[in-house]
Specification:
Layout: E1 24-26, H1 45-52, E2 56-60, E3 63-66, H2 68-87, E4 91-92, E5 98-100, H3 101-107, H4 109-112, E6 118-120, E7 126-129, H5 134-144, E8 153-162, E9 177-187, H6 190-210, E10 216-221, E11 229-236, E12 242-247, E13 253-255, E14 275-290, H7 292-297, E15 301-302, E16 308-309, E17 312-318, H8 320-331, E18 348-352, H9 362-380, E19 385-388, H10 394-404, E20 408-412, H11 414-419, E21 422-426, E22 432-435, H12 437-441
Parallel strand pairs: 1-19, 4-8, 18-19, 18-20
Antiparallel strand pairs: 2-3, 5-7, 6-7, 8-9, 9-17, 10-11, 11-14, 12-13, 12-14, 14-17, 15-16, 20-21, 21-22
The protein binds adenosine-5'-triphosphate and magnesium ion.
Length: about 450
C-alpha cells in the first residue's frame, strides 16, 4: 500500500519563513535516485554525472529537463546573476519566446541567423523560437522610450533559448534548448553606452567569481551581430569549444579565431609574460550592437534639442545552464559532483547510519532519533540540508553522497549517540573533523 505523503512535510519551517527555495528535505521524499552506471548515450562528463546523480533528465541530444536537485543549482546561478543585474539598474522582464516571423524579417535575421528554429502553424503562419531577443526587446523599449529623459534603460530576462545547433555533444554546455540571462541596454550616446558596458563587465566577473569560477575577458569580433568589438568571458576547461591564448602575467586574453596572437610570443599588452594556448568555454558575451536594431524598427527618441535620434544598444548574454556544466567539468572528481557552496543544491548532506527503523535494535533507533533531532534543529536555523533518512547500507549512502556533491556531509553514527561526536566531511577535500551537536548548530 502506498504511504500517504504530505508534500509540505519536507520542510519544518513555518510557511512565512519559506523562501522560493525550500531549505530542507528528507531524501526519502526526493523522487529522483542516483544511478550506479553512467548513461551510455552521454559523452561529456557534465551530462554523465548530472544524469547519474538525478540532476537532469535527457529528452534528446541537446535538450534536458532539470529535476529538483538540478533546478536548485540552476536557480542559484540565476539568482546570482539576477542580483548582479538588479544591482546595476537592470529591470527584469519575461519576454515571449514564440516570435512572429515578421519581426525577424524586419531585421533580416529570418534569413541570416542559421541557428534560428522556424515553425509553421496549421494556418501556414510562420514563427521563430527565440534564440536571442533583440527583435522583441527593441519594439518594447521603443514603446516606452520616446524622450532622452527615458534613457538609459537596461532590460533583462532569465529564461530559455532555442538554437538549431549542429552538434550537441557537450551535455548541458551546448543545448538546442538552454538557459540564458540576456540584457539589452539603450543609450543616448556612445560614451554612456561604454560607461555601462564597463559596469556590466565588472558585474559579470564578480558573478562568475561568486559561482566559484575565474573568467577571462577576451576581445573578439561581434560575429553575426555586429562589426564592432565584443567581449567574451572564458573559463579555462578542456571541455570547452573555444581556443584562446592568454598571458600568464596580466589579464590579456584573446580568442584564437580572431586574434593574431600565438602561443609562446611575448604578451602584446604587458610585454612581460608569454602567451599560453588553452581550451576554454564561453560563459558570457557582451556586444556593442550600435544602432542596427533601432534603425530596423524605426526606433527614435527626442534628444534635449528636440531632434530625433536612434539610441545606441548594448547586449549582454550570460549562459546560465552552460555555466552549471562548466562548474561540473572544473570541479567534479572521480567520485562525482563537487559544488561550491554558492550554487550547491544544499549546504549539508545529513547522513543517518541508522540501519532501518523496522525491527532494528535499540542503538539504531537512537541513531535515527539523533539524526531526526539534528535535522529539525538545522532546519529551524534555516540551514539548507538534505537528510538521507533512507534505509540503505552506509557504503551505498556514502557513495551516493559523494556523487551528489553537497559541500559538507554530517554523519550520524554510533559515535554521535555515545560521545556526541558527528563526523563532518568536506566534499571538495575529503577533510574529516569530529564536531559536537552544539558545534554543528553554531556553524
Ligand atoms: P557560442 O560561441 O558558444 O556558440 P554564442 O557566441 O553564440 O555562443 P551568445 O549568443 O553570445 O553565444 O549567447 C550568450 C551566452 O549563452 C554564451 O556566452 C554562452 O554562455 C551561452 N550559450 C550560447 N549558446 C549556447 C548553447 N547552445 N547552449 C548553452 N549555452 C549557450
Ligand atoms: Mg561565441
Amino acid at each position: 500500500m502506498h504511504k500517504t505523503r504530505n508534500i509540505h512535510e519536507s520542510s519544518v519551517l513555518p510557511k512565512r519563513a519559506q523562501k522560493r527555495i525550500l531549505r530542507c528535505m528528507r531524501q526519502s521524499r526526493l523522487f529522483t535516485k542516483a544511478r550506479r552506471e553512467a548513461p551510455a548515450d552521454e559523452v561529456s562528463k557534465n551530462a554523465q554525472l548530472l544524469v547519474r546523480a538525478g540532476y537532469v533528465h535527457k529528452e534528446m541530444a541537446g535538450v534536458y529537463s532539470y529535476l529538483p536537485l538540478g533546478l536548485r543549482v540552476l536557480s542559484k546561478i540565476e539568482n546570482i546573476i539576477r542580483e548582479a543585474m538588479d544591482a546595476i539598474g537592470g529591470q527584469e522582464v519575461r519576454m515571449a519566446t514564440l516570435h512572429p516571423s515578421e519581426k525577424w524579417k524586419t531585421t533580416g535575421g529570418w534569413d541570416a541567423v542559421d541557428v534560428l528554429f522556424k515553425l509553421q502553424s496549421r494556418t501556414k503562419k510562420e514563427y521563430a523560437l527565440g534564440q536571442s531577443e533583440e527583435e522583441i526587446v527593441t519594439p518594447i523599449a521603443q514603446e516606452y522610450s520616446t524622450s532622452y529623459k527615458d534613457l538609459p534603460v537596461a532590460i533583462y530576462q532569465i529564461g530559455q533559448k532555442y538554437r538549431d545547433e549542429l552538434r550537441a555533444k557537450s551535455g548541458i554546455m551546448r543545448g538546442r534548448e538552454f538557459g540564458m540571462k540576456d540584457m539589452y541596454s539603450f543609450h543616448e550616446t556612445q560614451e554612456d553606452f561604454e560607461r555601462f558596458y564597463e559596469i556590466v563587465k565588472q558585474a559579470y566577473l564578480e558573478a562568475y567569481a561568486t559561482c566559484g569560477l575565474v573568467a577571462k575577458v577576451t576581445e573578439a569580433s561581434g560575429g553575426a551581430f555586429s562589426e564592432k568589438l565584443s567581449y567574451e568571458f572564458m573559463v579555462l576547461t578542456d571541455a570547452g569549444e573555444d581556443d584562446i591564448v592568454y598571458c600568464e602575467h596580466c589579464t590579456h586574453c584573446a580568442n584564437i579565431e580572431v586574434a593574431k596572437d600565438k602561443e609562446g610570443e611575448a604578451c602584446p599588452k604587458c610585454g612581460e609574460g608569454s602567451l599560453k594556448a588553452a581550451r576554454a568555454s564561453e560563459v558570457g558575451n557582451v556586444f556593442d550592437l550600435g544602432q542596427k536594431y533601432p534603425k530596423a524598427f524605426g526606433f527614435m527618441y527626442k534628444d534635449a534639442e528636440g531632434n530625433e535620434q536612434y539610441p545606441i544598444v548594448g547586449c549582454y548574454g550570460f549562459g546560465t545552464s552552460r555555466l552549471m556544466g562548466v562548474i561540473v567539468e572544473k570541479l567534479a572528481d572521480e567520485k562525482g559532483l563537487v559544488w561550491p557552496g554558492s550554487v550547491a543544491p544544499f549546504t549539508y548532506h545529513l547522513v543517518s547510519l541508522s540501519a532501518g527503523r523496522q525491527g532494528s535494535g535499540h542503538n539504531n533507533d537512537d541513531i535515527a532519533k539523533a539524526a531526526d533531532a539534528l535535522y529539525d534543529a538545522l532546519a529551524k536555523k534555516g540551514v539548507e540540508v538534505l537528510y538521507d533518512d533512507r534505509d540503505l547500507r552506509a557504503g551505498e549512502k556514502f557513495a551516493e553522497s559523494d556523487l551528489l556533491g553537497i559541500p559538507f556531509r554530517i554523519v550520524v553514527g554510533k559515535d554521535a549517540v555515545a560521545n556526541d561526536a558527528f563526523e563532518v566531511v568536506e566534499r571538495a577535500t575529503g577533510m574529516m573533523t569530529k564536531k559536537s551537536r552544539a558545534e554543528i548548530l553554531g556553524i
